[in-house]
Design a protein that fits this description.
Elements: E1 3-7, E2 10-15, E3 36-43, E4 52-60, H1 63-71, E5 82-87, E6 100-106, E7 165-169, E8 176-179, H2 181-188, E9 197-201, E10 227-233, E11 245-249, E12 261-263, H3 270-273, E13 275-280, E14 282-283, E15 286-287, E16 296-304, E17 307-317, E18 319-322, E19 325-330, E20 338-345, E21 349-360, E22 375-379, E23 385-387, E24 391-400, H4 407-412, E25 423-429, E26 434-437, E27 451-453, E28 456-462, E29 470-480, E30 483-486, E31 491-496
Parallel strand pairs: 12-21, 23-31
Antiparallel strand pairs: 1-11, 2-4, 3-4, 3-10, 4-9, 5-8, 5-11, 6-7, 6-9, 13-19, 14-15, 16-17, 16-20, 18-19, 20-21, 22-24, 24-28, 25-26, 25-29, 27-28, 29-30, 29-31
Amino acid sequence: MAIKKYVASKDNTITNAFGIDLNTRSTGSNMGAADILEIFSIYGQAAITSSVELARTLIEFPIPDIHSDRDSGVIPESGSVSFYLRVFNARHSEQLPENFTINVLAVSESWSEGTGLDMVSYTDKLLDVNDGSSWTNRNKTGSWGTIGGVYHSSSYTSGSTMPNYTYTFNKGNEDVLLDVTAAVEEWIADRQPNYGFGLFLTSSFEANVTASDSYNIINTDGPKLSFYTKRFFSRSSEFFFKKPVLEARWDSRVTDDRANFYSSSSIAPAKDNLNNLYLYNYIRGRLVDIPHTETVTVKLYDSVDDKPAGGSLTSATATKIDTGIYKASIALNTTSSVIHDVWSGSIGGEYKTGSISVKNFNNTSVLLSDDFSQFTTKIANLKNKYVKNEQARMRMFTRPRNFDPTIYTVASNEIEKTIIPSASFEILRMVDEETVINNSTGSSDYHTYLSYDNSGSYFDLDMSLLEPGYMYGIKLSFYSSGQWREQEEVFKFRVEDN
């Protein structure tokens, strides 16, 4: 598993809306401690028929924590990880707009959150709360450069451009799931100060304003229509999985083909003729880097008397992919049923010799067909309970469902494991069957793909991603013949406080 969540460090709704008397503007009101965030545009509600009322959302994330995690190796370097902004819809009884688009722009001035709560009458004035931001002010003593907040939309000092994002809602009740990697990487690299994102209707949906005043911004492109109201859960929400987060996702798969090695064939695409082999450098039970600055190479040999024999059939240079783990991709056209892989370094000499059973595309039946019901899967090491700070490796054992061994075959043969090259998992909260970790079944997002090695498939689960006190279920999906199919089994466990 390769996912880490960073909950918002502060958020707020700022507005120039009228109070319940439809006479007094709420430009000085703060809602930084409310459990809801809001975006809207209201046209012509007040006695002044052309009145315009707007609400915008501000969300900032703990970029220093992300920076620290990268420095310590918790998340990968730039280019190997994606960051997704996730903000979750809050249902309400008010009117819900449809078919609208919001801006998601980096805020260019610092701001304070505040402790205001009132989102109805807007009675928590900035002068009365412990600091905070409002429609006119970025903090208690400092004004915004422009009312409603100041946002990046152009080039800055380095010559780069702070990306501008938009997000479109069709039904109106959708969550925000937006790839904001480029902006986050700018913040991590300190090319731009982190003041978070501003979320608000684009100029095509914020209402028409033809003349500026102390409450409104000129928007001649705006409609004489209302879009009321889109609400999200804030970081103050009581709901663990609904708080705004930046979600780091990356591909941490180990795809070790030692138990799934195929001889090259003209009937297979080039990528399917490549096999991935791994070297795991365990010292006293721990993975450690080989203590030489050198090139690690793997060579393949024929097998005679269960030993490498003759000259090498082929070789490949390995790449370090993690602490103590080295990977090489290699193709081999051979009629041998067994070969040996010999790993060595240009300085340290020979490290390891292994044995590999070779499969053949021409005479090996396809393991997966359109009938996904032919397999049964177990998580052999699944526990009933985990604690919230635990890192658990879930080991899968998959075999044909119709396997019917005799007493003799059980005693004399190891049950053959089925390697599922493309498999993904998701996590459900069982009390309401809410999906709390979505499976990734796309062609470029692999953060919930299973790894596999000689012992079968597996994935690592960080229990801190789950709220303690609940039972959860693991569901698996397998891919073959151009489709994903969810498997029947649900593997249940609880997460408890430490």
